[in-house]
Write a structure and sequence with these properties.
Layout (H helix, E strand, L loop, with lengths): L12 H26 L6 H20 L11 H25 L8 H29 L1
Helix pairs in contact: 1-2, 1-4, 2-3, 3-4
Length: about 140
């Protein structure tokens, strides 16, 4: 006779993936918005375009890198590397887009660099914390 108990995490896997995706998106948006506010710059349509490209790009690259589909017992370093690669590809996409359509004005380069550096630190930290919590619940 087999047990039908599937654990505490497995039944909620899709919800956890959605939570990871939602919070990653929130980090991308909130970090840019706070930096614009803290550096005394004005929000304009270009920042909205940057956010849309960043969110879609990051989610696409994260999906291709299996960021949200880690297996039980998998090393956390692989997941963190995938997140970092997804973000670096996203930044490259934005830089290429900036060459064709000036999304980031020269006076805002400092803000863009801060954002490009802070977001992966925040996303990586968030993933490590949540992965540790999930590991404890298993």
């Amino acid at each position: 006779m087999t047990s039908h108990f599937s654990g505490l995490i497995r039944p909620h896997r899709n919800k956890l993936i959605a939570l990871f995706r939602l919070f990653d998106t929130y980090i991308i948006i909130a970090t840019l918005w706070l930096l614009v506010l803290l550096l005394g710059m004005a929000w304009n349509a270009d920042w909205s375009i940057v956010l849309i490209i960043a969110i879609v790009g990051f989610q696409l690259f994260a999906e291709l890198g299996d960021v949200y589909y880690t297996q039980r017992g998998e090393k956390i370093e692989r997941s963190l590397r995938s997140i970092l690669v997804a973000w670096l590809l996203t930044i490259n996409l934005l830089l290429i887009g900036n060459q064709f359509y000036s999304l980031v004005e020269p006076h805002a380069y400092r803000l863009f660099v801060y954002w490009a550096l802070l977001v992966p630190i925040e996303i990586l930290s968030w993933h490590v914390i949540l992965m540790q919590i999930i590991a404890c619940l298993r």
